[in-house]
């Protein structure tokens, strides 16, 4: 049985969540190599930059076909583009942000989304002081028009920057409206249908983990 965070390739091969989480790192490092006009790189050279063993890199990439040639290594541009396709970055992924407070606005102001295939097309809030303002050209709408907005626009991803008390109810309503993936910044676990994907970014838990690592030494 496949766990919810696992994915399958077209060949029905199960890919571990740990491997999936490394793919964006590969993509970022390869992008930096491209900017420096590096044409090819071996798994050993890439391992030194990423602090991952060369064997692990080969194993990770072999899940998707390998991409390398023995004695040659990896063509940086080709591998960069192929990993981008695996991550779905060759498509435009429209996002709505629910919660236009400080965190929601900070996300909307992040210009890296545009270059990586993500497009924030609307922010939504209940605060009348925020409704009608724009954040980097994206309008903040009244949450009451969200259902109509989703009907008129192709949106699969919702970022939740809401208090925990509201996030569960809103997430359930959005799932019913067809949202298939949530980027959840609310400090709460979402109980959603099996076919809905949730990526949690719990900031307080992250810094608690950092605190443990500091004080456990």
CATH topology value of the largest domain? Rossmann fold
What is the ordering of alpha helices and beta strands?
Answer: EEHEHHEHEHHEEEHEHEEH
- Overall mean pLDDT score? 89
Low-pLDDT parts are: none
Specify the CATH architecture of the largest domain: 3-Layer(aba) Sandwich
Quickly name the level 1 CATH class of the largest domain. Answer: Alpha Beta
The coarse silhouette is: globular
Beta strand %: 15-25%
Account of the 3D structure:
By secondary structure, the protein is of the alpha/beta class. It has 2 domains: 7-86, Orthogonal Bundle (Arc Repressor Mutant, subunit A); 93-206, NAD(P)-binding Rossmann-like Domain (Rossmann fold), CATH 3.40.50.720. 42% of the residues lie in helices and 19% in strands. It has 9 helices and 11 strands. It has helices spanning 17-35, 43-50, 54-62, 76-86, 102-108, 112-115, 146-152, 164-176, 203-215; strands spanning 7-8, 14-15, 40-41, 74-75, 93-98, 118-125, 134-135, 138-142, 157-160, 181-184, 197-200. The longest helix is centred in the first third of the chain and has 19 residues, at 17-35. The protein is globular and about 60 Å long. The chain starts with 6 loop residues before the first strand and ends with a helix. The model has no long low-confidence stretch (mean pLDDT 89).
């Amino acid at each position: 049985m496949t766990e919810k965070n696992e994915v399958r390739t077209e060949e029905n091969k199960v890919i571990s969540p740990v491997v999936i989480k490394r793919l964006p790192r590969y993509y970022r490092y390869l992008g930096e190599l491209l900017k420096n006009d590096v044409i090819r790189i071996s798994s050993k050279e890439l391992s030194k930059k990423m602090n991952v063993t060369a064997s692990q890199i080969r194993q990770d990439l072999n899940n998707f076909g390998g991409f390398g040639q023995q004695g040659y290594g990896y063509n940086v541009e080709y591998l960069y583009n192929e990993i981008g396709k695996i991550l779905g970055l060759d498509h435009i992924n429209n996002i709505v942000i629910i919660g236009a407070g400080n965190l929601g606005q900070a996300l909307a102001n992040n210009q890296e989304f545009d270059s990586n295939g993500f497009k924030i097309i609307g922010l939504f809030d209940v605060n009348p002081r925020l409704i009608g303002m724009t954040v980097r050209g994206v309008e903040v709408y009244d949450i009451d028009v969200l259902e109509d907005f989703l009907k008129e626009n192709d949106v699969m991803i919702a970022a939740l920057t809401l208090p925990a008390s509201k996030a569960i109810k809103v997430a359930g309503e959005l799932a019913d409206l067809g949202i298939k993936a949530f980027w959840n910044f609310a400090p709460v676990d979402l109980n959603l249908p099996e076919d809905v994907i949730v990526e949690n970014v719990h900031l307080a838990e992250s810094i608690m983990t950092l605190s443990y690592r500091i004080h456990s030494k």
